[in-house]
Amino acid sequence: VQLVESGGGSVQAGGSLKLSCAASGLSFSVCSMAWYRQAPGKERELVSSISSSGRTTYADPVKGRFTISRDNAKSTGYLQMNSLKTEDTAVYYCWACAFWGQGTQVTVSS
Q1: pLDDT of 78-95, one tens digit each?
Q2: Contacts of 66 (CB under 8 A, 6+ apart)
């Protein structure tokens, strides 16, 4: 099983990034998937989730700014992040069917 994140990088506050999570070795379409993040010195926290049926949840700090989606045909999940803030700086991890990706760094500068 592999979950490979991509799309992280450095951006100025107010900018946008789109993260991708490409899954292999698992039946992605039946998996719930989620994005977590971990900032330096902080615990890993849930950012957003999407069920196999497409039901979504968002943490309060990202509501209205982030959008989670999935393309089961491509076994890929996405996290569109708009209006980024410095406090969004963290390593972002993909989770699906109890497996974790390696993480991708997102850095937002003021």
Answers
A1: 999 999 999 999 999 999
A2: 47, 48, 58, 79, 80, 81, 82
